[in-house]
Amino acid sequence: GENVEQHPSTLSVQEGDSAVIKCTYSDSASNYFPWYKQELGKRPQLIIDIRSNVGEKKDQRIAVTLNKTAKHFSLHITETQPEDSAVYFCAASRAGTASKLTFGTGTRLQVTL
Amino acid sequence: DAGITQSPRHKVTETGTPVTLRCHQTENHRYMYWYRQDPGHGLRLIHYSYGVKDTDKGEVSDGYSVSRSKTEDFLLTLESATSSQTSVYFCAISEWTNSYEQYFGPGTRLTVT
User: Fold this and answer.
1) What is the pLDDT of residue A86?
2) Which residues on chain B are in Cβ contact (under 8 Å) with A91?
């Protein structure tokens, strides 16, 4: 089955700096890669996703890049703000298989003032 | 938030007792999922459903069973709870018409003593 590895497990940045979280996946047939943000005590919520026919997608301060050849994808957050502090999860799936997601183990991002 | 509720939200039970968690949706989405979340493991799929009475196993299904007799309800049963099943359980729903996004419920914190 699919295996997703996520790094780093914790990340501390100063407000205004950029943050990058990286994930690798094992199943070359995976073609859907979402990123979820989970605040303390809350449910995970989708912040951005990318499909394998696209190399990069951007939404305001958040961007995701995908390298299918290397089987890795990354989340980029620019101009970080304290409200970006949360745990971020990457995931991968084959669209067409009930969208069964395999998640990474999460990155705890702390944005300090 | 999508119309997803989980009940109970918190439960403490003893080893060996049966436990049933309920997920209820008002979105009429076809797909429903049960995940467990544990520190260091991210979210792991337990079981999922692709329609009424249509279910299948995820990566950590041992010790769990599910049922879906109506579109809106997906039940997760621990036949004989063990301490290793202490976790936070999330239900999620999705519909593939426009996106593969999964919407998560608020979670159930289960403690098995």
Assistant:
1) 98
2) 43
